[in-house]
Structure formats: structure tokens, C-alpha cells
Amino acid sequence: MEQSQIILNTKVFVQETLKDAEGGHDWFHILRVYNNAKNILSRETANGFVVELASLLHDIADSKFHNGDEEIGAKKAKAFLETQSVDPVTLKHVVNIIKNVSYKGGHNSGDFHSIELDIVQDADRLDAIGAIGIARTFNFGGFKNNPIYDPEVPGNPNQSKEEYKKSNSPTINHFYEKLLLLKDKMNTKTAREIASQRHEFMEKYLDQFYKEWEGKL
Ligand code: ADP
Ligand code: NI
């Protein structure tokens, strides 16, 4: 099968599979990550077919909804790619990327590494920052019914990740927990440049947020 046909089939498969997905990881997240990945690809040297397939399939299943089975996404992707007569080397590479892409599992924790993994990971992380990142974060906080901000609960660097996850921390705290840390985690030069603009935008946003909160504008 032609590569372009496989990409097309993959888009249809992912869109259909994610039709009831939660807002943070729906088809539009996939599409943004895919576009981010193609932007990065245009300025880095890598296997474009692998990057496109992996970015489309990277969130095909969430372990949270499958009894914590961390491999469920990789398994689903593998089963799909086998129906598309994808060559075994490409298939193995895409599956390895999916296993290693998540923020928590970060590829530093595994022994697999490739420029294609770097690109997909950057593309996913870019969607967690900037204007879109802000929207996703408040969407998540709203879903949890968390306060947007509480001056009594400052972004607390001493709070452990577990305490933070259990608490109903104000959504603004998540900026300090994750969003503002992402620009320094980018793997590629291209993503670092895009991230730096998105980071500045978040800092401006927070400045304005605190000014408005305190009635200073
Ligand atoms: P990822 O898809 O990168 O593994 P998550 O599933 O943890 O990330 O989060 C999905 C989206 O929800 C991200 O944009 C993330 O920043 C946001 N999010 C995660 N945890 C929180 C939280 N405690 N408060 C607000 N937003 C959150
Ligand atoms: Ni993702």
C-alpha cells in the first residue's frame, strides 16, 4: 500500500476510535500534535512516515481507562498497523515511540531513543503550552471542579507530586508544576524555538492574570 494511503487510513481509524474521547486527548489534540510534528519535520532530518504515523497514533488509548495497562496504546496501534501491511521495521519503530512518548514515562526512563521519538514527544509537549496549553489546563481543572486560583495556596514547590494529584489544587498551580517547565524539556532546536514563544505568552498571561486578580488594571 502507498504510504499516503496508509496515513489516510490511519487518520480515519484514529478519528473514529477517539470519537468519545475526553477533551484533552480528542481527535483535535491529535491533529494539532500531527501538525506540530510536520512543522518540526520540515526543519529536522528524520523519517517522516514514522513521525506521521506515531504522532497520529500516540494517544490511541489511555491507560487510565484500561485498568492502568500502560501498553494498551502500543498494542492497539500495533494491531491496526498490522492491518495496513506496514513494513516490520516501521511498525516496531512506531510502537516503540508510542511506548516512550508520555510525559511521565519520558524517553530518558527507557532504553529506546530516536530522532523520530524526539520529534513526536516535542510535538505533544508543544500542545501542552501556549494558548492551547492554557485552554487545556483550565478545561481539565474545570472538569475536576478545582478553583482557578487561590492566593492562600501558592504554587507549592515542596508539595510532592502525589499530594498535588490528590489535592484539588488550583489550576494556576499546574503552570508551575508542568507548563512552565516544558520549554526546557524540548529535544529539537525547532521545538525549542516554538516553545520559547509559547512560554513567553504564558508568562504574559500570568502577569495579566495576577494584575486583574488584584484589581490593578
Ligand atoms: P499528557 O497528555 O501530556 O500525558 P495529561 O493527561 O496529564 O498529559 O494532561 C492532559 C492535559 O490536562 C494537559 O494539557 C495538562 O496540562 C492538563 N492537566 C493535567 N493535570 C492537570 C491538573 N492537575 N490541573 C490542570 N490541568 C492539568
Ligand atoms: Ni498527546
From TrEMBL:
The lineage of its organism: Bacteria, Pseudomonadati, Bacteroidota, Flavobacteriia, Flavobacteriales. Pfam families: HD. InterPro entries: HD/PDEase_dom, HD_domain. CDD domains: HDc. Gene3D superfamilies: 1.20.58.1910, HD-domain/PDEase-like. Residues 22-138 form the HD/PDEase domain. It comes from the Bacteria. PANTHER family: HD_PDEASE DOMAIN-CONTAINING PROTEIN, SUPERFAMILY HYDROLASE, PUTATIVE (AFU_ORTHOLOGUE AFUA_1G03035)-RELATED. This is HD domain-containing protein.
